[in-house]
């Protein structure tokens, strides 16, 4: 199942994508897609609905974040060997974690605004995990039972604010619009092996990142188990699992985002995002 939310910001309606790639309106069945919707029993109920029985949505509405009311977004740093290498950093002994402010989260095709003074804003395609069951001290073996589904994330990052402004990384990771999520939440049953997904990102049509989640250092199950040892993961929480090489700061010469640029990115089976880069709005 591919769950999504569509409509104007703050007014999104719940929907799902049918086999033909059409949006079907779920608002006659549920009020919204929220963390509570992601409970296993609730997802099973939705899976029993025949998409053809739902009204088809006309046109191409804006897509919102596929889950409303996300509680937190935890990101993993340096989780691909080639990315650590391009930054010239040693591999960390354990996965570094940081959080992205919830206020940074936007729909998959919304504009990305460069924050005031930004000269080093950068892209990061990532596999996102969306939690469906409360996870606290879970073992690696049980970890995937706590996943509702997966999504595409762009962990947009202002490198100067991240690394040259006295810490912590949140300064460069949490500007408004720096967290596009979507286009949909693809339920776990449709992603039998999350460690075999191609992921890629283009800027103005030029391919910058092209890798596979097979190259992650800590995989999805390890990350959920590891993170749940520090904090409780709740339904609707999102984990961004790290980016492969090909970010702007790792290129020679370095390259950063400017107004008018277009980022297009995707993860195999999870859909694509497309963001126009614009100046900040007050
Ligand atoms: Zn990242």
Keywords summarizing the entry:
single chain; 13% helix; 6 helices; 17 strands; 2 domains; globular; Fumarylacetoacetate hydrolase, domain 2; 5-stranded mixed sheet; alpha+beta; 30% strand; 282 residues; binds zinc ion; 10-stranded mixed sheet
Please, could you describe this protein's structure?
It is a single chain. The protein has 282 residues and is α+β, with helices and mostly antiparallel strands. It folds into two domains: 2-53, no CATH class; 73-279, Fumarylacetoacetate hydrolase, domain 2. 13% of the residues lie in helices and 30% in strands. The chain is built from six helices and 17 strands. It has helices spanning 40-47, 81-87, 140-143, 159-163, 170-173, 220-227, and strands spanning 2-6, 13-17, 23-25, 73-76, 97-100, 105-106, 112-114, 121-122, 125-131, 147-154, 157-158, 179-187, 198-203, 206-212, 238-240, 262-267, 271-279. Strands 1, 2, 3, 4, 5, 6, 9, 10, 12 and 15 form a ten-stranded mixed β-sheet that branches. The protein has a five-stranded mixed β-sheet with strand order 7-17-16-13-14, with no helix packed on it. The chain has a two-stranded antiparallel ribbon with strand order 8-11. The mean pLDDT is 97. The structure holds zinc ion (ZN). Zinc ion binds at residues 75, 124, 126, 155, 240, 242-243.
């Amino acid at each position: 199942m591919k769950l999504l939310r569509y409509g104007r910001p703050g007014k999104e309606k719940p929907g799902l994508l049918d086999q033909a790639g059409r949006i079907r309106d779920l608002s006659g069945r549920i009020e919204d897609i929220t963390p509570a919707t992601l409970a296993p029993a609730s997802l099973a109920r939705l899976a029993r609905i025949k998409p053809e029985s739902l009204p088809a949505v006309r046109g191409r509405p804006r897509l919102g974040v596929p889950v409303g009311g996300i509680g937190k977004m935890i990101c993993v740093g340096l989780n691909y060997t080639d990315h650590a290498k391009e930054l010239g950093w040693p591999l960390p002994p354990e996965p570094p974690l940081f959080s992205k402010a919830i206020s940074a989260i936007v729909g998959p095709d919304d504009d990305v605004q460069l924050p005031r003074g930004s000269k080093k804003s950068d892209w990061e395609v990532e596999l996102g995990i969306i939690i469906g069951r409360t996870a606290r001290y879970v073992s690696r073996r049980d970890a995937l039972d706590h996943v509702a589904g997966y999504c595409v994330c762009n962990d947009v990052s202002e490198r100067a604010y991240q690394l040259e402004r006295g810490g912590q990384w949140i300064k460069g990771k949490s500007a408004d619009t720096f967290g596009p999520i979507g286009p949909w939440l693809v339920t776990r049953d449709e992603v039998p092996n999350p460690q075999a997904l191609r992921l890629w990102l283009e800027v103005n049509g030029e391919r910058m990142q092209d890798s596979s989640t097979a190259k992650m250092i800590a995989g999805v199950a390890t990350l959920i188990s590891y993170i749940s040892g520090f904090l409780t993961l709740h339904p609707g929480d999102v984990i961004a699992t790290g980016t492969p090489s090909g970010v702007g700061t790792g290129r020679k010469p370095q390259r950063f985002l400017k107004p008018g640029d277009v980022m297009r990115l995707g993860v195999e089976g999870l859909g694509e995002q497309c963001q126009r880069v614009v100046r900040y709005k007050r």
